[in-house]
Amino acid sequence: MTQHEGQGEDLIRTATALVQRIELAIDGFSELLVVGFRRDGAASFFLGEDPVYQFNAAGELRRAFRAGKLLKAESRKLVELTRKRTDNRVDMVACELSEEQHQQFLGQLWKTLSELQQALLGKRYRVTRQVPVEQDIVEQVIQWIDQLPDLILVADVANAR
Fold it and tell me: How far, in Å, CA of 142 to CA of 122, rounded?
């Protein structure tokens, strides 16, 4: 998906579907963080290359990347896709997360978003770039996280609708 700075994709420049986007250096985070919002309010969080969390407009998790693997929402459950290579093709093998794995993943996601929100509220960050420059996207991120329920919900489908 994304790549490290200087290695590939520059999300602030290229992720134009995210009409508001901000790149932040956050105290306590080892990588730059990019947060972006679509026109409908759907949000994406990129903590360096991995992990990545993508939500729909209702605030439900629709896709994520962790440890180099894609997780996608299917019928409100998380399914991990793994590439299986053979001599002449690549297949994606799907494996639904167990309930324990599901809860553990969502718990870690909530912890990460909470730490981000606390760093923003405590002004322990530096804006490196943002689009558009005149908007208060930091406040938008704080409010977006604040509206999430204590238990993050998984979307019915992985697409952005």
Answer: 11
Instruction: Categorize the per-residue pLDDT at 161 as very low, low, confident or very high, splitting at 50, 70 and 90.
Output: low
Identify whether the C-beta of residue 20 lies closer than 8 Å to the C-beta of residue 131. yes
Largest CA distance in the chain: 52
Q: Where are the domains of the chain?
A: 11-146
Q: What is the pLDDT of residue 7?
A: 46
Beta-carbon contacts of residue 140 (< 8 Å; ≥ 6 apart):
20, 37
Look at the pTM and tell me if it is higher than 0.85: yes
The rounded distance, in Å, linking the Cα atoms of 40 and 26 is 26
Strands (E), 2-152: 20-26, 33-37, 43-47, 52-55, 61-66, 69-74, 77-85, 90-96, 125-131
Q: What is the pLDDT of residue 119?
A: 97
